[in-house]
């Protein structure tokens, strides 16, 4: 088992990539703490197996994050997966939209890392290696996309944060990488398609920008999550790893 004996914390775990990652990590022997604000989704996840413990956690709530860190202690893996896709050019982004997206997509990772890194450093002192994985996107500093002004900005910042953490803690056994998926078929993507003026065309457009001719499934993404959280990636840090079906060829 690739994650036997590891304790892993995953945010945004009630659905989509976070949920699939929680299940995949548990299947590889990790004891997983899955957090989200969607309690119904967490309950369904917890029902699936006894190696997944769930907690309601709003990653925008510093006090709640600190309280969880005190309660749970050290982790070998932290997957900061929570994020939100705002649709629009820079002319469409209100101050409120901007503040929300930067807070959820980037500042939450600063809060989570600050709260959980001390416990991870303790674990690294014993085991030699721990891993932080931050959810970025191909829409970031890597590539620009129409109508992703604040989203692309925040995901570029995630890559910057990732490299900074990697540089600061490389000598203490902490690895930190960013995951950059293409378009993945998840509940929020289905919501974006459904809310388009022409949902059929919107789905076709999402597929058309994927050179492999299809959307990713969550199962296309979890192998890279497992790799980056496991010791198989022990010589990899500070990287923005793409899994995008060829979009950035
Ligand atoms: P999703 O958007 O369908 O679900 C997101 C989950 O995050 C939900 O369960 C939601 O309740 C939770 N969440 C929202 N706010 C939260 C908060 N404040 N605290 C805790 N949890 C919160 O899932 P997804 O599409 O798999 O997206 C997950 C991540 O992957 C996001 O960061 C997203 O930007 C990124 N991503 C997604 C795609 C894609 O095409 N789906 C592509 C690249 C990157």
TrEMBL record:
Keywords (A to Z) from UniProt: NAD, Oxidoreductase, Signal
Domain of life: Bacteria
UniProt key word NAD: yes
Cleavable signal peptide: 1-26
InterPro entries the record matches: NAD(P)-bd_dom_sf, SDR_DHRS6-like, SDR_fam
UniProt-recorded Gene Ontology molecular function terms: oxidoreductase activity
Keyword match NADP: no
A Pfam family of this chain: adh_short_C2
Gene3D superfamilies named in the record: NAD(P)-binding Rossmann-like Domain
Family assignment from sequence similarity: Belongs to the short-chain dehydrogenases/reductases (SDR) family.
Protein name: 2-keto-3-deoxy-L-fuconate dehydrogenase
Record organism: Nitratireductor aquibiodomus
């Amino acid at each position: 088992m690739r994650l036997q004996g590891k304790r892993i914390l995953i945010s945004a775990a009630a659905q989509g990539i976070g949920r699939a990652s929680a299940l995949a990590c548990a299947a590889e022997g990790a004891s997983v703490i899955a957090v989200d604000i969607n309690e119904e989704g967490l309950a369904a996840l917890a029902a699936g197996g006894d190696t997944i413990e769930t907690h309601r956690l709003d990653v925008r709530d510093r006090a709640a994050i600190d309280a969880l860190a005190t309660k749970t202690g050290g982790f070998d893996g932290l997957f900061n997966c929570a994020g939100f896709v705002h649709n629009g050019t820079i002319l469409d982004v209100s101050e409120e939209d901007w503040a929300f997206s930067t807070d959820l997509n980037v500042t939450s990772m600063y809060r989570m890392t600050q709260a959980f890194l001390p416990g991870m450093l303790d674990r690294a002192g014993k085991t030699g290696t721990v891993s932080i994985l931050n959810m970025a996107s191909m829409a970031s500093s890597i590539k620009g996309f129409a109508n992703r002004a604040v989203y692309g900005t925040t995901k570029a910042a995630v890559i910057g944060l990732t490299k900074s953490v990697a540089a600061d803690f490389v000598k203490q056994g902490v690895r930190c990488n960013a995951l950059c998926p293409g378009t993945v078929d998840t509940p929020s993507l289905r919501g974006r398609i459904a809310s388009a003026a022409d949902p059929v065309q919107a789905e076709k457009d999402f597929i058309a920008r994927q050179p492999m001719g299809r959307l990713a499934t969550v199962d296309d993404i979890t192998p890279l999550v497992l790799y980056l959280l496991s010791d198989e990636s022990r010589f990899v840090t500070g990287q923005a790893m793409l899994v995008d079906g060829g979009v950035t060829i």
